[in-house]
Design brief:
By secondary structure, this protein is mainly α. It has eight helices and no strands.
């Protein structure tokens, strides 16, 4: 079996596993489970997470040129470390809506907007669960319910930092650091996408002012050379008097 075949066979199972992971982890944290219910939820989280780790290891093993594959598939590593991110791929259908893919640039911006928005939602939700799990039973903690945790995540990911709620545990602070860096990266992506959209709108109707790309220049040169060749062949075919 090769790597593409494995990917095609595992697409649906992994999508289902990511949903199970999200549901089990949400149930575990928000309900603050104990006893047998906590054991069941923990097993579901562990099994689904292990499935993503196995998928990543198998794909890496089957790949031709493992180091090159590793560098080109950092997204697969992100899915293995945080399985719920795979749910963002389900948003692909939104990138194919009519009127959203007129040009390559517009198609790219649409994908960035859709996937970026999905990542923000997933990141904020998972960070809320993680910080609540880390903080809830710690002495002096003020992030003690999901509503507060969600508010804290929204404030942190936007790098606003009101400081009304602050994690007191090392695990909670680690979540905060990851969320802040994620927010900075996403802000940069959103800013770049918005700037690209503004430039695209401003250049409409001014095609004569746009610089030609190398591909366009090569196409023009090839056409000129083709015309020159046809003229030479016509000239050779004219009988001499």
């Amino acid at each position: 079996m090769d790597e593409p075949t494995w990917v095609s066979r595992m697409t649906l199972p992994l999508s289902i596993a990511s949903l199970v992971y999200l549901a089990a982890y949400s149930w575990l944290v928000i309900a603050d489970l104990s006893g047998p219910a906590r054991t069941v939820a923990s097993v579901l989280v562990g099994v689904t997470w292990a499935l993503f780790i196995v998928d990543y290891v198998v794909r890496l093993t089957l790949a031709d040129g493992r180091w090159r594959w590793f560098r080109k598939h950092l997204g697969a590593l992100a899915f293995a470390l945080l399985p719920v991110l795979r749910l963002v791929l389900l948003l692909e259908r939104l990138t194919h809506l009519p009127g959203l893919r007129r040009t390559r640039g517009a198609a790219l911006r649409t994908r960035i907007a859709v996937y970026g928005g999905g990542v923000v939602v997933v990141l904020v939700y998972i960070a809320s669960l993680a910080v609540l799990e880390a903080e809830r039973h710690s002495p002096g903690a003020d992030i003690v319910d999901f509503g507060i945790a969600l508010w804290w995540s929204c404030v942190t990911v936007t790098t606003t930092g009101f400081g009304d709620y602050v994690p007191v545990t090392m695990a909670g602070r680690a979540v905060a650091v990851g969320l802040m860096f994620g927010g900075i990266i996403l802000s940069g992506i959103i800013t770049a996408t918005l700037a690209s959209w503004i430039l695209d709108r401003a250049s409409r109707g001014h095609d004569d002012e746009e610089p030609a790309t190398r591909a366009q220049a090569r196409a023009i040169m090839a056409r000129i050379e083709g015309l020159g060749g046809s003229e030479e062949s016509q000239g050779r075919g004219v009988p001499q008097g």
